Amino acid sequence: MVPQDLRYTKEHEWVRIEGALATVGITEYAAEQLGDIVFVELPEPGRAVTQFTAVGVIESVKAVSDLFAPVSGEVVESNAELSDKPELLNTDPYGKGWMLRINLADPSQADALLDAPAYEALTAEA
Fold first, then answer.
1. Is 32 among the domain residues?
2. What pLDDT shows up at residue 94?
């Protein structure tokens, strides 16, 4: 079951919006599909990102995948712990495995994202 308080993308990112700050990660479903994650490349703080564009790379034993920004804004923090412990994306994707914090350019962009029931329906079809 996916956390009900988050929003989701069709590319399997999650976003937690708190005021003007969005915390971003990949879903447990994405982590399971990727397998053991061995490397993560994240954008530097200060970088502007645009909704639904690639902003980083996730490499697993199975594949290399892009990380997409679920919202537009400025990266204010990247999870530095992931450079030494990329496996946090597998073991705690909604907690210690968060990836980015973005200062939102337009909070209404969250309306274009999936809510938990819609995301659960999407993954049930896969």
1. yes
2. 97
